[in-house]
Structure formats: structure tokens, C-alpha cells
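Re: that chain you flagged

S.,

Sorry for the slow reply, it's been a week of failed gels. I finally had a moment to sit down with the sequence you sent. For the record, here it is as I used it:
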Amino acid sequence: MSTDTAGNGDPPLPKRISLTPAEDGDGWVARDEDTGVASQGPTRAVALENLDEAVAGFYGEGSEPTPEDLAELGIDPDANTSGSLSDSDIFE
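Prediction finished late last night. Pasting the C-alpha cells below so you have them in one place:
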């Protein structure tokens, strides 16, 4: 949880956290104020646990999903392609 301390080369845990009710009133939003990473959960504890996982991902922890992971989510990796960022209107 976000109140734990990182050690053994683990990514830094959030230090300045905001914890607020979700806008729809259904759950909580936890935000690491230093990185801007945010996560949510149905309870404060779950929101903080999800934030720890999200911050670890921000620092490069984790692994790429396998084709099986993607298929479980209904994503066909062969049918999905990424274009160049310079070809995107979103990143202008």
C-alpha cells in the first residue's frame, strides 16, 4: 500500500498523495501528486493499492501483455497496428 516504503531497488512509492471521492460518488480516486499518476477503487484502501501498481508501471515495472492476455480482453494483436506519432492528429 502507499504507506509502505520502497526498498531493494523497487520504484519509489508515492509520497504526496491526494485521496478524494470519485465525482460520481461511487468510490475513491488516489493521485500521486509528484508524477500525476492517478487510480481509483471502490474503497480508499483499494484505490491506494491500485495507485501503487500504477506508479510502479509509470516507472517501468511490469511486463508486456502476452497474446493470451490480449485475447482474454477481446483484443486481436494481429488486427491492431500502431502508426507513427507524427501521423496522429492527437499529438500535434
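What I noticed first: The longest helix spans residues 44-58.

Talk soon,
D.
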